[in-house]
Sequence to fold (267 residues):
Amino acid sequence: MSSSQIPIILLHGFAEDSNIWERQTAFLRRHHHVIVPDLPGCGKSAPPQGSISVEDMADYIKSLLDSESIGQCIMIGHSLGGYITLAFAEKYPDQLLAFGLFHSTAFADTEEKKAGRRKKIAFIQKNGAAPFIRQSIPDLFSESSKTTFKQAINDLIEQYSNFAPETLARYQEAMIHRPDRTHILKNFNGPILFIIGTQDNAVPYEQSLQQAYMPDLSYIRILENVGHMGMIEDSDRCNQALDEFITFAGNRQPGDDKPVADLQQTR
Fold:
Protein backbone atom coordinates (compact mmCIF):
# COMPACT_ATOMS: atom_id res chain seq x y z
CA MET A 1 0.00 0.00 0.00
CA SER A 2 1.43 3.39 -0.98
CA SER A 3 1.29 6.45 1.25
CA SER A 4 -1.46 7.93 -0.95
CA GLN A 5 -3.74 4.99 -0.09
CA ILE A 6 -3.12 4.83 3.66
CA PRO A 7 -5.83 6.54 5.73
CA ILE A 8 -4.44 9.48 7.72
CA ILE A 9 -6.39 10.16 10.92
CA LEU A 10 -6.05 13.67 12.38
CA LEU A 11 -7.35 13.97 15.95
CA HIS A 12 -8.07 17.43 17.32
CA GLY A 13 -7.32 18.61 20.83
CA PHE A 14 -9.28 19.81 23.84
CA ALA A 15 -11.95 22.49 23.24
CA GLU A 16 -11.49 22.13 19.48
CA ASP A 17 -13.12 20.25 16.63
CA SER A 18 -12.04 18.91 13.26
CA ASN A 19 -11.95 22.43 11.78
CA ILE A 20 -8.72 23.14 13.66
CA TRP A 21 -6.99 21.04 10.97
CA GLU A 22 -8.41 22.96 7.99
CA ARG A 23 -4.99 24.19 6.81
CA GLN A 24 -3.61 20.66 7.01
CA THR A 25 -6.52 18.88 5.38
CA ALA A 26 -6.53 21.29 2.44
CA PHE A 27 -2.83 20.58 1.91
CA LEU A 28 -2.69 16.85 2.62
CA ARG A 29 -5.78 15.84 0.67
CA ARG A 30 -3.98 16.60 -2.55
CA HIS A 31 -1.93 13.43 -2.10
CA HIS A 32 -3.32 11.52 0.88
CA HIS A 33 -6.54 9.95 2.16
CA VAL A 34 -7.32 12.15 5.19
CA ILE A 35 -10.01 11.50 7.80
CA VAL A 36 -10.71 14.17 10.41
CA PRO A 37 -13.34 13.12 12.99
CA ASP A 38 -15.01 15.19 15.68
CA LEU A 39 -14.62 13.72 19.14
CA PRO A 40 -17.86 13.24 21.12
CA GLY A 41 -19.34 16.59 22.15
CA CYS A 42 -17.16 18.47 19.67
CA GLY A 43 -18.20 19.97 16.34
CA LYS A 44 -21.05 17.95 14.84
CA SER A 45 -20.57 14.94 17.12
CA ALA A 46 -23.14 13.99 19.75
CA PRO A 47 -22.15 14.74 23.37
CA PRO A 48 -20.61 11.98 25.48
CA GLN A 49 -22.78 10.20 28.00
CA GLY A 50 -21.55 10.11 31.58
CA SER A 51 -17.88 10.17 32.51
CA ILE A 52 -15.29 9.56 29.80
CA SER A 53 -11.68 8.52 29.62
CA VAL A 54 -8.88 8.79 27.10
CA GLU A 55 -9.22 5.03 26.66
CA ASP A 56 -12.93 5.48 25.87
CA MET A 57 -11.97 7.90 23.13
CA ALA A 58 -9.48 5.41 21.70
CA ASP A 59 -12.33 2.89 21.51
CA TYR A 60 -14.51 5.54 19.87
CA ILE A 61 -11.90 6.08 17.15
CA LYS A 62 -11.56 2.30 16.78
CA SER A 63 -15.32 2.05 16.17
CA LEU A 64 -15.13 4.79 13.54
CA LEU A 65 -12.33 2.97 11.73
CA ASP A 66 -14.23 -0.31 11.89
CA SER A 67 -17.33 1.36 10.46
CA GLU A 68 -15.25 2.48 7.48
CA SER A 69 -13.53 -0.93 7.19
CA ILE A 70 -10.15 0.72 7.83
CA GLY A 71 -7.36 -1.62 8.87
CA GLN A 72 -4.01 0.08 9.20
CA CYS A 73 -3.63 3.85 9.33
CA ILE A 74 -1.34 6.66 10.38
CA MET A 75 -2.68 8.70 13.30
CA ILE A 76 -1.64 12.24 14.26
CA GLY A 77 -3.00 13.76 17.46
CA HIS A 78 -2.90 17.34 18.68
CA SER A 79 -2.65 17.72 22.47
CA LEU A 80 -5.62 15.69 23.81
CA GLY A 81 -5.70 14.01 20.40
CA GLY A 82 -2.15 12.85 21.08
CA TYR A 83 -3.21 11.32 24.41
CA ILE A 84 -5.93 9.44 22.55
CA THR A 85 -3.45 8.37 19.88
CA LEU A 86 -1.17 6.91 22.55
CA ALA A 87 -4.08 5.04 24.15
CA PHE A 88 -5.00 3.73 20.70
CA ALA A 89 -1.40 2.62 20.12
CA GLU A 90 -1.49 0.73 23.42
CA LYS A 91 -4.81 -1.02 22.71
CA TYR A 92 -4.60 -1.50 18.93
CA PRO A 93 -0.92 -1.35 17.93
CA ASP A 94 -1.39 -3.52 14.83
CA GLN A 95 -3.63 -0.87 13.29
CA LEU A 96 -0.94 1.82 13.33
CA LEU A 97 1.82 2.01 10.75
CA ALA A 98 3.05 5.19 12.40
CA PHE A 99 1.77 7.97 14.61
CA GLY A 100 2.55 11.53 15.58
CA LEU A 101 2.36 13.67 18.70
CA PHE A 102 1.50 17.20 17.59
CA HIS A 103 2.20 19.41 20.63
CA SER A 104 1.41 16.46 22.88
CA THR A 105 3.10 14.26 25.45
CA ALA A 106 3.27 10.67 26.65
CA PHE A 107 4.02 11.79 30.22
CA ALA A 108 1.22 11.78 32.78
CA ASP A 109 0.19 15.05 34.39
CA THR A 110 2.28 16.23 37.30
CA GLU A 111 0.41 16.94 40.54
CA GLU A 112 0.76 20.65 39.74
CA LYS A 113 -0.78 20.12 36.32
CA LYS A 114 -3.63 18.10 37.81
CA ALA A 115 -4.33 20.87 40.29
CA GLY A 116 -4.42 23.35 37.43
CA ARG A 117 -6.93 21.22 35.55
CA ARG A 118 -9.15 20.98 38.64
CA LYS A 119 -9.13 24.77 38.88
CA LYS A 120 -10.19 24.91 35.24
CA ILE A 121 -13.05 22.50 35.93
CA ALA A 122 -14.22 24.67 38.83
CA PHE A 123 -14.00 27.79 36.65
CA ILE A 124 -16.00 26.15 33.85
CA GLN A 125 -18.67 24.90 36.26
CA LYS A 126 -19.01 28.35 37.82
CA ASN A 127 -18.72 30.61 34.77
CA GLY A 128 -19.60 28.47 31.75
CA ALA A 129 -17.73 27.67 28.56
CA ALA A 130 -17.50 31.06 26.86
CA PRO A 131 -15.48 32.87 29.59
CA PHE A 132 -13.16 29.87 29.81
CA ILE A 133 -12.57 29.83 26.04
CA ARG A 134 -11.94 33.59 25.98
CA GLN A 135 -9.35 33.16 28.71
CA SER A 136 -7.65 29.96 27.56
CA ILE A 137 -7.26 30.17 23.78
CA PRO A 138 -4.88 33.17 23.65
CA ASP A 139 -2.57 31.39 26.10
CA LEU A 140 -2.11 28.56 23.59
CA PHE A 141 -0.22 30.92 21.27
CA SER A 142 3.29 32.32 21.67
CA GLU A 143 3.64 35.98 22.55
CA SER A 144 4.59 36.95 19.00
CA SER A 145 1.75 34.83 17.56
CA LYS A 146 -0.80 36.64 19.74
CA THR A 147 -0.16 39.69 17.58
CA THR A 148 0.42 37.99 14.24
CA PHE A 149 -2.63 35.74 14.54
CA LYS A 150 -4.93 38.06 16.48
CA GLN A 151 -7.81 37.58 14.04
CA ALA A 152 -7.37 33.80 14.01
CA ILE A 153 -7.47 33.79 17.82
CA ASN A 154 -10.66 35.86 17.82
CA ASP A 155 -12.18 33.48 15.26
CA LEU A 156 -11.36 30.46 17.45
CA ILE A 157 -12.88 32.13 20.50
CA GLU A 158 -16.08 32.83 18.58
CA GLN A 159 -16.15 29.35 17.07
CA TYR A 160 -15.59 27.40 20.29
CA SER A 161 -17.45 29.48 22.88
CA ASN A 162 -20.58 27.38 22.43
CA PHE A 163 -19.08 24.21 23.90
CA ALA A 164 -21.23 22.53 26.54
CA PRO A 165 -19.57 23.21 29.91
CA GLU A 166 -20.07 19.61 31.05
CA THR A 167 -18.23 18.34 27.97
CA LEU A 168 -15.22 20.55 28.71
CA ALA A 169 -15.23 19.43 32.35
CA ARG A 170 -15.41 15.75 31.41
CA TYR A 171 -12.46 16.03 29.05
CA GLN A 172 -10.40 17.84 31.69
CA GLU A 173 -11.19 15.02 34.12
CA ALA A 174 -10.19 12.44 31.51
CA MET A 175 -6.83 14.14 31.02
CA ILE A 176 -6.20 14.21 34.78
CA HIS A 177 -6.59 10.44 35.01
CA ARG A 178 -4.60 9.39 31.97
CA PRO A 179 -1.50 7.31 32.83
CA ASP A 180 2.10 7.73 31.75
CA ARG A 181 2.51 6.10 28.33
CA THR A 182 6.19 6.65 27.66
CA HIS A 183 6.50 2.87 27.34
CA ILE A 184 4.53 3.15 24.10
CA LEU A 185 7.20 5.45 22.67
CA LYS A 186 9.92 3.00 23.68
CA ASN A 187 8.22 -0.11 22.34
CA PHE A 188 6.29 0.99 19.26
CA ASN A 189 7.44 -0.78 16.12
CA GLY A 190 7.13 2.08 13.64
CA PRO A 191 8.22 5.70 13.20
CA ILE A 192 6.90 8.43 15.49
CA LEU A 193 6.67 12.11 14.61
CA PHE A 194 7.06 14.88 17.20
CA ILE A 195 6.02 18.42 16.35
CA ILE A 196 7.29 20.74 19.06
CA GLY A 197 6.84 24.45 19.75
CA THR A 198 9.67 26.18 21.57
CA GLN A 199 7.18 28.49 23.30
CA ASP A 200 4.54 25.86 24.12
CA ASN A 201 3.06 26.62 27.56
CA ALA A 202 0.94 23.46 27.59
CA VAL A 203 3.69 20.92 26.73
CA PRO A 204 7.07 22.20 27.93
CA TYR A 205 9.83 22.24 25.33
CA GLU A 206 12.28 20.31 27.51
CA GLN A 207 9.71 17.58 28.15
CA SER A 208 9.03 17.29 24.43
CA LEU A 209 12.71 16.85 23.67
CA GLN A 210 13.07 14.27 26.44
CA GLN A 211 10.33 12.04 25.06
CA ALA A 212 11.51 12.44 21.48
CA TYR A 213 14.64 10.43 22.30
CA MET A 214 12.67 7.42 23.52
CA PRO A 215 11.57 5.73 20.24
CA ASP A 216 13.90 3.68 18.07
CA LEU A 217 12.80 5.75 15.07
CA SER A 218 11.59 9.25 15.87
CA TYR A 219 11.41 12.41 13.82
CA ILE A 220 11.31 15.91 15.19
CA ARG A 221 10.10 19.17 13.76
CA ILE A 222 10.97 22.03 16.10
CA LEU A 223 8.99 25.22 15.49
CA GLU A 224 10.78 28.33 16.72
CA ASN A 225 8.68 31.01 18.47
CA VAL A 226 5.59 28.79 18.23
CA GLY A 227 3.30 27.91 21.11
CA HIS A 228 0.76 25.08 21.24
CA MET A 229 -0.96 25.79 17.92
CA GLY A 230 1.59 25.05 15.22
CA MET A 231 -1.12 24.12 12.73
CA ILE A 232 -1.98 27.84 12.69
CA GLU A 233 1.20 29.55 13.92
CA ASP A 234 3.47 27.80 11.40
CA SER A 235 1.13 25.92 9.11
CA ASP A 236 3.52 25.69 6.14
CA ARG A 237 6.25 23.91 8.09
CA CYS A 238 3.71 21.69 9.84
CA ASN A 239 2.17 20.73 6.50
CA GLN A 240 5.57 19.92 5.08
CA ALA A 241 6.54 17.85 8.13
CA LEU A 242 3.30 15.88 8.02
CA ASP A 243 3.55 15.24 4.29
CA GLU A 244 7.15 14.07 4.49
CA PHE A 245 6.49 11.86 7.51
CA ILE A 246 3.37 10.30 6.00
CA THR A 247 5.15 9.64 2.71
CA PHE A 248 8.11 8.06 4.47
CA ALA A 249 6.01 5.96 6.85
CA GLY A 250 3.70 4.80 4.08
CA ASN A 251 6.52 3.71 1.79
CA ARG A 252 8.85 2.43 4.51
CA GLN A 253 10.26 -1.06 4.21
CA PRO A 254 11.30 -3.17 7.22
CA GLY A 255 14.70 -2.00 8.43
CA ASP A 256 14.44 1.33 6.62
CA ASP A 257 15.50 3.90 9.20
CA LYS A 258 16.65 6.78 7.05
CA PRO A 259 15.23 10.19 8.02
CA VAL A 260 13.31 12.27 5.53
CA ALA A 261 14.31 15.74 4.38
CA ASP A 262 15.22 17.98 7.30
CA LEU A 263 13.36 16.02 9.93
CA GLN A 264 15.84 15.10 12.63
CA GLN A 265 16.26 11.45 13.50
CA THR A 266 17.06 11.13 17.21
CA ARG A 267 18.75 7.72 17.01
User: Anything to note?
Assistant: The longest strand covers residues 96-102. Confidence is low (pLDDT under 50) at residues 259-267. Strands lie at 7-11, 33-35, 73-78, 96-102, 192-197, 218-223, 264-265. The chain has one domain: 7-109+178-265.
